[in-house]
Write a structure and sequence with these properties.
elongated; mainly alpha
Amino acid sequence: QLRAQNQVLKKGVVDEQANSASLKEQLKMKDQSLRKLQQEMDSLTFRNQQLAKRVELLQDELALSEARGKKNKKSVESSSQLSQEQKSVFNEDLQKKIEENERLHILFFEADEQHKRLEAELRSRLEVLETDAAQHQAVVDSLTKKYTETIEKLQNDKAKLEIKSQTLEREAKDCRLRTEECQQQLKNLQAALGSRLEESLCIINEKVPFNDTRSTRYNALNVPLHNRRNQLKLRDLAGQALAFVQELVTALLNFHTYTEQKVQIFPVDSATDTISPLNQKFSQYLHENASYVRPLEEGMLHLFESITEDTVTVLETTVKLKAFSEHLASYLGFLRKILPYQLKSLEEECESSLCTAALRARNMELHRDMKRLTAVFEKLHTYVSLLALPSTRPEGLLRTNYNFVFTNIAASLHGFHDILKDISKHYSQKATLEQEVPTATQKLITTNDCLLSSVAALTNGAGKMASFFSNNLDHFTTSLSYGPKGGTEFISPLSAECMLQYKKKAAAYMKSLKKPCADSVPYEEALANRRVLLSSTESREGLAQQVQQSLEKIAKLEQEKEHWMLEAQLAKIKLEKENQKLKNSLSGHLTETIQERSVLPNIAEQKKETTEKSLREPIKSTSLSTNHKCCLLKSLLCQAPDVESREDLIKTHYMARIAELTSHLQLADSKSVHFHAECRALAKRLSLAEKSKESLTEELKLASQNITRLQASKLFCILMTTKRSYEDQLSMMSDHLCSMNETLTKQREEIDTLKMASK
């Protein structure tokens, strides 16, 4: 650039110098012409002065001649003719001289003016040229200074670049040597890797029985990488879509409801007159709109609930999309059912006497808009049903066509919004025209306002839905089309469902791994606890049987206790009767006997209490010795004066003895049951020990097989890791070689540029 600017400036300086030289020559020529004109001017002034002097002399001569004429008139008269001729000659000559002098004065004035003008122009031009020359000289000086500095800088750079080129050449030589060494190493590594690869392939073919990633059918069952952010984004988008669908559902319900009211009001009010059968049927169908519109919201809600953070959301797993497509198909059938009635109703309204030409035109526009609206819903249903195909029949829609379907859905939503804008515009125009009808009522006006508000809400909802779908089109296309690692898609919805089940199991397993481990129990203690647990389970069964038997015995004893209580009450009654009989016979003797008999029942009651206690606590009752009881019985019999009291004492003694024996019998039964339970527990423990021995032998076999398999897999993993490491080294070396080649090419280019610059 500096060279090009230098050449341009040199050309400009040369041109300016040539211009200044030509101007100097012109200035010299003008000076020469000016000098000539000045010389001519000087000569003319000199000539003019001569002529003026001559005129003065002639005037003097004329005055002298006139003075002489007075003296000698006669001579004058004689010579008057000659003087007149001379005078006429002088006058002519003087007139010519005056004219010539005047002309010369004019020429001199013009030449002087021209000379002054030229001199001023030349002076101004000379000043401009001098300033331009000074500027050019300054530019030339600055450029020369700059060029000298750049030349010095370039010389320094040249020296540095020569040094750098020498160093780069040395580095290039080193790089060539290193590349040769790397190539040699590469060949050696390729040979080693080839041999190891053959060995590893042989081991893989012999030891690895199954590789599920080779088959797309089995690879579809593998769980893909979980993208939590993607799932949260999809759930957020599904929530926004649910809100938009709810808004559209509300607007559609209002639109169909207010359309039904409008049909019953205009052109004929059903409150005052009967409407046509067509409008009656149309209003009847419109009254059923909620059963077709509400399921859309429910289907979208179920779809939103199916998208959670833990699931894998793709088109193969979104089974609820099929239900939404079916609900949309039912609503489309509803629109197709009411479309002919709506069109006929508009035509019937056009044929009425209240319909003007402008209103008829608006009705025909709405006639076309309703057809377009049904066609747009048919398009939407077609594309939504296509999106629902992968969850039922994956071969019905390939993954390569996902983007096409999503773009067409976005285009259909925009078309839906445009049609609704036209419908809103035409309905507003129709409402204004219907208000001008003389039979328009307040009910019709309010119905039209509600209908317009519902259409406006429907238009806004459709616009939001279209913009939302267009803004997130790329995200829908990318996020709903990922699959297992190494595969492109899921084979079938069944495989996708199995994959989700595997994912749940894997998540549960990971959660269980994250739980803190409980305090471990030593192995010997655990074995002891296991034996105790097994024996306790067996003893628990025995104890349950014992408890059942003891409960039955307790029930029997309770029955016997009630029986003996009744007998004791009867004995007391008999005793009271006998006391009353003997009361009057022998007072003293009877009182003693009564006291002794009153002591005997107390002793009997005490014996009964002891028997009850012995029944409850049989082990404690056995502590009394038999000899002591016999001595006590003899002493009581000696004290008892009457036979009945003796019988009672004997009876109580034997009852106590029976209770003691029963307690001993219960103790023996419990011990036998305990021993039987222990025997059963030991037998079961023995069987469990044999089973554990068998399981341990099987586990030992499996462990030996696993050891051999793990050794083979370990060798395979080592080979694979070495292969990967060598591949990484090879890739790094190839990248290093590429970078070295690039540096060499750059150095060569720099050397070439330096050579060109030095030249």
